[in-house]
Amino acid sequence: MKKYFGVAIILLFCLSASAVFGQRKLPAKAYLSSAKIDVIEGRPEEAITMLDSLFFNYGPHAEGLALMCQILIDYVSNASTAQAKSPYIEKLVAYSDSLHRYCENEEVDKKNRKECKKLIPDVDTAAVQFWREFYNKGLDQLSSLQDFSNELENAQDSQTIAYYSNAIDAKADSAILNLELAIKIDSTDHRPYLAIGSILEGEKKYDEAIGWFIKSLKYTDDSSTMLLSVAYNYINLEKYCDAILYFEEYNRLNPKDIPNANNLTICYIRCEQDDKARAMYKKMLSVDSVHGGALLGLGSFYRREASELVKQAQQLAMDKKEAEAKSRRDKGNKIFDTAAAYYEKYITTYPDSVSGYDEFGLINYLLGNYEKAIVAFKKLSELKPDDVDNWISLGDSYFSLNKFADAAPAYEKAVAITPDNKVIWERLSFLYHEIGKPDKKAVADKKLQGLN
Questions:
Q1: How far apart are the first and last CA of the chain?
Q2: Which domain holds residue 438?
Q3: With the C-alpha atoms ordered 82, 87, 90, 93, is the resulting torsion angle positive or negative?
């Protein structure tokens, strides 16, 4: 439990000038004795007046400060609500702080500090008990908030929705007040900050939640939970670039947490920090060599880079810059090979992935690796038999290898799905001629006449 509660030594001038300066100064013991009698006889306000006079005339006094704390402890205990307890908690914290500072001030005469060892524990014990009371009550209310949220989610009629909405607001306000009282007692414990942030997050007050989570970071030795809480609340606000700092720090502390590393790469990509995203994907593969997100991600990066180089090569060729065009084209093809390697590893690990086979097939077709393209498009036609593009791509791959007898069935599947595809019927007419199927060629030609 924290020893210092946040303010400097108190020299409280609680009495008005007329009440103080019109009285004869009494010995310190007289003020203290009167205050004790007032407490015993149930006159705490009069006891406070005596103690204020003691502090005004003699400055901080260990036994007087401890007695003031005990009076305030009784006030806190007797107050019925957290809101009613709040002003007494603030005063208790202030006097507790003064008592600690007075007792630890070596400039104060030792004889005036001799009672400190038995006075301070009682005050600290009460502070610990109050902290637990407020924190635990706040946690209980946080738990019931979740129950109310579940009821609200399942509510159908407007009256029930309104009831639970109002109940949630009231319970959240009460929970936050209790947790704030815990913070007033001990501002260095991260748990109440975390709980308040969680309440506000549940209410979708993401900006406010972030503020509390960040406050908690200063007071915890294990910051991972708060770092993620901040990051995900920024994502809830679609502030991906702001989330990066917290994901990065989390990743530094938890380098083997691949799911959150993957989320960091998503933030990098959204913030156009592609180099960092690529590096993070490679770092992920160093931990998990077959991580699907990293394999697909790197494949996509290299595919886009290669596509851009090929596009530049085409423009250079149009500008009659053949040497530069060839250089860009060759470089692009090598990068396409790299992309294809990542996709191939991906489909080997995840053999039912449509997106993986789609990318692998397309790249290999562009590179002229038609045998590999055929493998991909065959698999795609099994995974998505109603997708006409898969059958057309399969037919095109066979056609490119002059495997006409294999290309024809693929194109036949395509026209079965889209019977008015003129280009495919023209291709089929040619194929039927090449493979010696005149009856089928006649059907294709008749279909083409109808389409024309």
A1: 88
A2: 386-452
A3: negative
Does one domain contain both 373 and 406? no
Residue 145 Cα to chain centre, angstroms: 21
Q: How far apart are CA 65 and CA 433, in angstroms?
A: 108
Read off the pTM: 0.77
Q: Supply the DSSP symbol for 24.
A: P
- What span, in angstroms and rounded, lies between the C-alpha atoms of 230 and 232? 6
Residue 142, judged by CB atoms within 10 A of its CB (0-12, 13-18, 19+), counts as buried
Please, what's the largest Cα pairwise distance for the chain?
Answer: 129
DSSP per residue, 66-113: HHHHHHHHHHHHH-SSHHHHHHHHHHHHHHHHHHHHHHT-TTS-GGGS
Q: pLDDT digits over 95-113, tens only?
A: 999 999 999 998 888 887 8
- CA dist 109 to 11, 25, 95, 106, 429, Å? 18, 22, 20, 7, 111
pLDDT tens track for 217-248 = 999 988 999 999 999 999 999 999 999 999 99
Number of domains in the chain: 3
Q: In Å, what is the CA distance from 89 to each residue of 115, 180, 449?
A: 24, 11, 93
Long-range interactions of 281-287: CB distance < 8 A, separation 24+: 283/255, 284/258, 287/255, 287/256, 287/258, 287/261
User: Residues 380, 298: one domain?
Assistant: yes
CB 188 within 8 A of CB 2: yes
Q: How many CB atoms lie within 10 A of CB 27?
A: 11
Asked if 20 and 108 sit in the same domain, the reply is: yes
